[in-house]
Amino acid sequence: MSSRSQETEDLVDVDLYDDGSFPQFRFGQAPAGLATRRQLRAMGLSPGGQEPAAQLIWRRGQRMAWLYRIDLAKPKRVPTLAQERALDRAMAARQSCPVCRRRYRYCLPLKTLGSCLECHDGTPADPCDYTTSPDHTLAA
């Protein structure tokens, strides 16, 4: 091994201005102006590429969530009609039984059973759980 390659392997990326502390808050103690991804999503926002600003800890350190600055968050992207149609086709493939052609309101076990439960073993399906109409509303 050459000495030059040995030097590059020994290099470590160190941020001189990082003291190693990352702000951590217990549940309910985070300051205003910070929100989790789920909270941002409820506000119609997304992190927008920013790094987490702090960490939220609960359940004695067993659970954790990143906190992001609300002022740096960006508006959520709105899917185009073509994207919504593509999502609907993908969900229709997962929710439709190839035997009886019903579209259920949940994903079917097509990889393991190959059909809905009613077609597979005769378990009756609740009529509220499926539609037989070929015209579906968009899933997204």
UniProtKB/TrEMBL annotation:
NCBIfam families: QRL_CxxC_CxxC. This is RRQRL motif-containing zinc-binding protein. The lineage of its organism: Bacteria, Bacillati, Actinomycetota, Actinomycetes, Kitasatosporales.
